[in-house]
Specification:
This protein has five helices and no strands. With about 150 residues, the protein is an all-alpha fold. Among the domains are: about 45 residues, no CATH class; about 50 residues. Helix 2 crosses helix 3, helix 3 runs antiparallel to helix 4 and helix 4 runs antiparallel to helix 5. The longest helix is centred in the N-terminal third of the chain and has 28 residues.
């Protein structure tokens, strides 16, 4: 189990961070839409080859999925293009904080919309801690540069 956890950390941390850095750099050299295009073109090629090699490229029942199951692709294009644009302007660390904070706050909002039983105070404290951490991080960076 430890090996799989380490692989998840490698894929989820190092490779995603590297991908964001490359997209941000490509966005500076070209445009965010071109960076997003190459991100998706390379990802499509690699995942298609992997699907053909391992099997299961088109899983059974894919045609029976509801229409909204396929919204991940267009949303992903927007997310990668926006991420490429943001990284070029505010940097990788600040954009990572923005993404993580946004995911956490959106998760709490989805829980409330879905009427998932949760503690209001625990969720509120979590959001305050996330926003506070982002503000402290930004404050330290500003004071560190001016000295």
């Amino acid at each position: 189990m430890t090996v799989f956890i380490l692989l998840a950390c490698l894929g989820g941390g190092v490779l995603v961070g590297l991908s964001r850095q490359l997209n941000g750099r490509l966005s500076i050299s070209t445009t965010p839409l071109i960076a997003s295009f190459w991100n998706h073109a390379v990802g499509f090629a690699v995942l298609t080859c992997l699907g053909l090699f391992v099997g299961g490229l088109l899983p059974a029942g894919a045609a029976d999925a509801p229409w909204y199951a396929y919204l991940g692709g267009p949303i992903g294009v927007i997310f990668v293009a926006a991420g490429s644009w943001v990284i070029a302007r505010i940097g990788a660390v600040n954009s990572a904080l923005l993404i993580i904070g946004g995911q956490m706050v959106t998760g709490v909002a989805f829980d409330y919309i879905s009427a998932v039983p949760a503690s209001f105070w625990a969720n509120a404290a979590g959001i305050v801690l996330i926003v506070g951490g982002m503000m402290v991080s930004r404050g330290r960076r500003k004071t560190g540069r001016s000295q």
